[in-house]
Amino acid sequence: MMLGLLWASAFPLAKIATHGLPVFTIVAIRLVTAAALLMAIRAAVTGKWLSYPPGSLWPMTVLACIGNNIPFVLLTLGLTTLKSGEAALLIALAPLFGMLMAAAVLSDEPLSRKRIAGTLMGFAGAALVIAPQLSGKSPHAPWWAYACLVATAASYGAVHVAAKHYSRYPALDRATGSMILSALFSLPPVLFEQPWALPAFPSSSVFASLALGVFPSALAGLLFFQLASRHGTLMTGFAGYTVPVFGVLAGAVFFDEPLTLHVIGAMTLILLGMVAARK
User: Fold this and answer.
1) Residue 117: CB partners within 8 Å, gap ≥ 6?
2) Which of 42, 106, 168, 242 would give a disulfide with 4, using CB separation of 3.0 to 4.6 Å?
3) Cβ contact 95:274 at 8 Å
C-alpha cells in the first residue's frame, strides 16, 4: 500500500507543478532531486558514490529511459490538460501492460484465462475514461493527452519486465544508477525551454517539482526495486492497484474533481481487472 501511495502522489504534485513551469523543467527538477537523494542514501548504506558493477551501464540506461525519462515526460505533458484523477485511472493499466509484455518475452509468465479476462476488464475501464473525449463530451482535454497517459502506463509496464530481466544487480544500484542517468538525460531539453527567462513562476510549482523527486521518484523507486527483488517485479507492479483509488481521491480533495458515477465505474472495472489478472 505504501508503494501505491507514493506512486499516486505524483498526480497531484505534477498537476500543481504544471501550473507554473514547463514540462521538461519539471522533469529535470524531479530527476535531479531524486538522483541526489538516492546517491546520498547509497553512499550512507554502501559507502559508494559512483562505483557500479561492470557491465551495468546498458541495463541502467534501459531502466532510466523506460522507467523514468519517457514516462515522466509523457505524464507531465498529459497533466497539462488532463484531470489528475483521470491520469491515475489510466496509469493503473501499467501492471496489465506489464503482464502482457511479460507473457510475450518471458517464458515463466504465461497468460491464463483469468489473466486475459482481467486484462480485458481493465482496458474496458480505461475505455470508459477515454469515452467522453471520443464522443466530444470532454472538451477540457485533447486526445493526445489521453494517448500520453496510456503510453506512460505501457512504459511503466515495460520497466516491470526489464527490472525482472536485470534483477541480478542489487536493488539500490539499479534505483540509483538509473536515476543518475535519467537526471543527466533530462538536462539538455531544459536549454530549449529556458525557464530562467520566465518573468515569474509560483513557488508552489518549484516545491511540487522537488516533492516529485523525493516521494514518487526516489523513495518509490527504491521501494519498488527492493520489493521486486523479494517478490518479483510483476507481482510488485500490482501494488499499483491502489493508485487509481488514491489518485482519484487526491483529485477530489485537492482539485475539486467530481466523483461521478462515470469515474467510479471506470475505477471499479480497472480494480476488478487487476484483481482478476493476479489470480
Assistant:
1) 273, 276, 277
2) 242
3) yes
